From TrEMBL:
Residues covered by the CARD domain: 88-167
Region (Disordered): 1-26, 50-82
InterPro entries per UniProt: CARD, DEATH-like_dom_sf
Protein name: CARD domain-containing protein
Start-end of Polar residues biased regions: 50-62
Compositionally skewed regions (Basic and acidic residues) per UniProt: 68-82
GO biological process: regulation of apoptotic process
Length: 167
């Protein structure tokens, strides 16, 4: 599996020629994958009785599962368009029609949406279709437009904004 001289418990990881070694308060993973395509999310919970080192450094953003929402929340470090894309499904489910109409008015007043785009969104038969139209139109217009939608939602509906991780 790995170095037979290493101290500490080891766990085999299927599909790798080497495994995971827990020693000196750290977890060492040196898999040798060949011809393996990984799609989707991979979650691993590691529990040990080995104390953590005094200081650790990592470049990985933490992922936290929010049981109340049954979703993962990640720090929002990306572009405003990425933020909107990451919350799109929940935005469609949670935003109210009155808030959507106020957002449309604000975005039109700021000249982000044209009269025709605003009318197109309002002509949607369901609130969900209207929400999809609004978030997609704005996201496709870039960072300034996406930031304006986020700021508008935060001011109009702080509760939904907090649920979506925008504040």
């Amino acid at each position: 599996m790995g170095n037979s001289n290493s101290a500490g418990p080891k766990a085999e990881v299927p599909g790798t020629s080497q495994g995971v070694t827990v020693q000196d308060g750290g977890v060492y993973n040196t898999p040798q994958l060949s011809g393996v395509n990984v799609a989707g999310n991979l979650y691993m919970n590691v529990s040990t009785n080995v104390p953590a080192p005094a200081s650790t450094e990592t470049n990985v953003s933490p992922t936290v599962r929010d049981p109340a929402l049954n979703r993962e929340s990640r720090p929002q470090n990306g572009s405003p368009e990425d933020k909107l894309f990451s919350i799109r499904t929940e935005f469609v489910q949670r935003v109210s029609e009155p808030v959507l109409n106020q957002l449309l008015d604000q975005l039109h007043q700021q000249r982000i949406l044209t009269q025709e785009e605003m009318d197109t969104a309002r002509s949607c038969r369901t609130k969900a279709k209207m929400a999809r139209a609004v978030i997609d139109m704005v996201r496709n217009k870039g960072s300034v437009a996406s930031s304006s939608l986020i700021e508008g939602l935060v001011s109009l509906d702080p509760t939904v904004s907090k649920t979506l991780g925008l504040i």
